[in-house]
Write a structure and sequence with these properties.
alpha+beta; about 25% strand; elongated; single chain; 3-stranded antiparallel beta sheet; 2 helices; about 70 residues
Length: about 70
């Protein structure tokens, strides 16, 4: 009896659309900073950039304080 009297609380999602496909490498990247590491040759931060399509990563060691110019 309870199952028959329940109503749907969610709205219909509609037509699902595919995600945009990346055609070229390095169109969409993510950037990360890992801080708080022990000092190693004056560097205590790891900055890395990952390409979403090819899963290629580039790593760079930085020291505090670093500037936007160094990161770019």
């Amino acid at each position: 009896m309870c199952q028959r009297s329940k109503y749907e609380t969610l709205t219909p999602l509609g037509i699902l659309q595919p995600l945009p496909f990346r055609n070229h490498a390095w169109q969409h990247v993510t950037m990360y900073f890992i801080e708080g590491l022990p000092n190693s040759w004056g560097k205590e931060v790891i900055f890395f950039v990952v390409d979403i399509l090819s899963k290629t990563a580039h790593f760079m060691a930085l020291c505090h304080p670093y500037t936007i110019k160094e990161v770019a």
